[in-house]
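[agent] plan:
  1. take the single chain provided in the ticket
  2. run structure prediction with default settings
  3. attach structure tokens to the ticket
  4. add a short note for the reviewer (M.T.)
[agent] executing step 1
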Amino acid sequence: MGSVWELDYYSRPILDEDNKKVWEVLICETHKDISSKTDSLFRYAKYCSSSTVNSVWLQTAVQEAIDKAGEAPVKIRFFRRQMNNMITRACEDIGIPAQASRRTLVLNQWLEQRMEEVYPQEAGFQGGSNPSVRLDSPLPKRLPDALEGEQLKFVTLSGVDFADMPEWNIDFGEAFPLDLAGVSSETKIPGVLIYSNRSLPIAAWMSGLELAWLRVDTSKQTRLLLETGATDSWILANIKNSQMQIEAKNFEQVKQKANGVHFIGIQSDPNSESFAGFWLLREI
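[agent] step 2 finished; step 3 output follows
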């Protein structure tokens, strides 16, 4: 499988000579696995004047990035939902699918670094933040009946336990280096394991989504939700057992201490030594 890229196209806290906002496109490669190095990932950055902001300019920039990288990505992720139409059109016009996603960890870190170290050095820097429009999430949806697991278990691993993850037998999944999230090998990382005799179909279905993170919702009843894409949310489980509710609360507490890092695994049964699916996630 080829590489996956992350893209942002938006105004920056910089004014040009005409007091107009300077725009910028950032493109970077997504981590392939937990052992990949951030400094080896492909990156591309280019400023854009506000008068030339359109899908044609962006398409040209993406093509320049492809030429520089030497190969095109299999897809491009972006997190700014208000830029959906422009980004999608620019990418699809050169044959690359673009998907709204909250799984843009490398891009988010790069943006933070540029806000602190790069933009303040530019003439016309205005300070402030780099806002993104936040939309209300829709009501969580029920999983299709055929994709519901028979058993769910909250578990905890240490960061060091992921050292040999590249050697695990996983059919579908994705990960990132723990140090990207500031997590050490001693950090406790919470997770959820789902067991089902239909583990492979469930994992295959999840692989078609842009998995963002898991969260426990206690607003009305205790529910485990899977956040995907830009705003989608799925009910993985309604938790009614009192002991499981305590474990769900502990999951959230441990996740917070781990800088939002957690995981979800799909297995056929508790004795299985392989995973139909395994994703390392981070709530941001």
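[agent] step 4 note for reviewer: The mean pLDDT is 92.
[agent] ticket updated
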